[in-house]
Amino acid sequence: MVKNSKEAIVNAAISLFNTKGYSGTSIRDIAGSANVNIANIAYYFQNKHGLLEHCFTSFFEQYLAELEAGYVLLNQGAEFCLKNISANLLNFYFRNIHLTRFILREMSIDSQVVREIMSTYCLKEKYLLQKVLEKGKEWGEFRPHSSEYMIIQLKGLLTMPFLNPHYITEVLHVYTHERFFVEKYQQEIDNWIVGFLCTGIKRQKEAMLL
Question: Is 109 helix (H, G, I), strand (E, B) or coil?
Fold first, then answer.
């Protein structure tokens, strides 16, 4: 029997949910993969649904912590803040690539768990991102684009490589599990922020002070 059975159960569940799907994975499958008794799963999570909720909650609590760590830099400028937020989230996805894949896939399905997540964590995410974007427009750093559509584009940039790994790997020959990908892709997201969102006014003012 494994020493840290709770962690082993979660890791096994994430792996199986990714390969067999949530509906196609049984508690017996998870127990076998984690090398634990089924009773251990009942003890920690009650059932498979409880395990699913744990995965969602764990993911989004960490996700919001990364977002908030970037948000506290807003007083240093909206562009600087948004770049840090995107870097934090991209690195979080990279460190938790299998969990990220599963969660992003499940978020596309209308379920009670997803609705609960959207009414709590996703609304907090929207509030923080909208605050950065609105401040950026107020301070003259960002162009007057719709904040809602800017959020859609930013989230699309961040999630697409992890939501479509086979296309990214087999068609584009880009490998999201490599550190080089994160470093290169972050540069591209920064380019999008500068080229699409930024007015350039702040940079001009800074250049004039030199």
Answer: coil
Backbone dihedral angles phi then psi of residue 122, each to the nearest 5 degrees: -70, -30
Please enumerate in sequence order all residues whose Cβ is within 8 A of that of 114, keeping only pairs 6 or more positions apart, or say none.
106, 107
Cβ neighbours for 131, distance < 8 A, ≥ 6 positions apart: 71, 74
Residue found by looking up tokens 């509906």 in the block = 23
**What are the pLDDT digits (tens) for 80-128?**
999 999 999 999 999 999 999 999 999 998 888 889 899 999 999 999 9
Q: Which fold has domain 1-46?
A: Arc Repressor Mutant, subunit A (1.10.10)
Cα–Cα nearest to 106, from 170, 26, 162: 162
Q: State the pTM of this model.
A: 0.89
Which residues make up the CATH 1.10.357.10 domain(s) of the chain? 55-209
Tell me how far apart the terminal alpha carbons of the chain are, to the nearest angstrom. Answer: 64
What is the spatial distance between Cα 48 and Cα 56, in angstroms, rounded to a whole number? 13
